[in-house]
Amino acid sequence: MTALANKHHAVNLSQGFPDFDVDPELVELVNQQMRQGHNQYAPMPGLLSLRGLISEKTQSLHQSYYSPETEITITAGATQAIYTAIAASIKPNDEAIIFEPAYDSYAPVVKAFGGLVKPYEMAPPFYDIDWNMVKRLVTANTKLIIINSPQNPCGRILKEEDIKQLKIITENTDILIISDEVYEHLIYDKQTHLSLARYPELKMRTFITASFGKLFHCTGWKVGYCLAPEMLMKEFRKLHQFMVFSVNTPMQFAIEAYLNNKPTYLELNEFFQRKRNLFRKLLEPSRFTLLRCEGTYFQNVSYERIAADNDVEMATKLVTDYKVACIPNSSFYTRNTDFRTLRFCFAKKDETLEKAAELLLKV
Ligand code: PMP
Ligand code: GLN
């Protein structure tokens, strides 16, 4: 869709990335680190000092300790953390339960390692989970449950009841969990991010994945990390070592220095909540129906009142005829289920959102 947006000179609200710049101070820190000669391999699991800061962050936000030495690994974005965690967990014929609409990297990796994807399809408008139905997906072969809160693309967040059900489902089993928490700081209306790090019964079986791309508006840097108990992290690192060996050094030093200066991520909720509210307000007079957005930088809309087209046709029409690009949500379902909804990314300058809304009001 980004390629199509460029081709049609459309406002691009499709792929999730900010169109505003990184803090110049952070860019300067990268330059400084390079000038100071931090240009050779970092240690395999990442800079110990950066891992130390991540450990402190997790302790202070979730009262949960991960050892910098043995339980934290810096990765080439959350994407590599997810890939490696799945690769470490899945062998042929293992089953993985995925809550859809889901970020598109989970299912292909499960399949690449011979696993079977068992999707649980959530539906608009509320994307509720019926845990009795989830329980029916669990078999003796279930090896992995992948969750993502706040969830891309539907903006849903896990609540205490979901956590309780996850505990019940996994109790006395060998099921592992990947908890993709890249949007941990993009959560709105004073709600709390319930990291699985908070729950010892779940933490012991969970890989948590996170991304500095989301924290500091630098998705192109591809630096993230994985948290897991030592026993799981040992397996993770066996693969990490031969997949990337280590992650780019000056970025790690710069992120460490930046984290030491000012943890700006604590203001992200407010920053993006304002953008969410602005985008929703701008679209209020439109014919689209705005769905709930509790977190992430994605706003989902239903266009059922406007057209009978399938969502790919609708998204194509929007980019070619109205010059606004979005993502059709069927691409986030293994079975390409189409609920006639579209995803718009609001991690954009106010002018970009205003321009997009102006065009969308014509639909
Ligand atoms: N998980 C989710 C849910 C995402 O939306 C993204 C980013 N687009 C990632 C993982 C990947 O993060 P990174 O860019 O750090 O690889
Ligand atoms: N996560 C971002 C999105 O959902 C972009 C990542 C990608 O394009 N692979 O749009």
From TrEMBL:
Its cofactor is pyridoxal 5'-phosphate. Keywords: Aminotransferase, Pyridoxal phosphate, Transferase. Belongs to the class-I pyridoxal-phosphate-dependent aminotransferase family. One of its GO terms (molecular function) is pyridoxal phosphate binding. This is Methionine aminotransferase. Residues 10-358 form the Aminotransferase class I/classII large domain. Coiled coil: none annotated. It comes from the Bacteria. One of its GO terms (cellular component) is cytoplasm. The keyword Nucleotide-binding does not apply. Gene3D superfamilies: Aspartate Aminotransferase, domain 1, Type I PLP-dependent aspartate aminotransferase-like (Major domain). The lineage of its organism: Bacteria, Pseudomonadati, Bacteroidota, Sphingobacteriia, Sphingobacteriales. It comes from Pelobium manganitolerans.
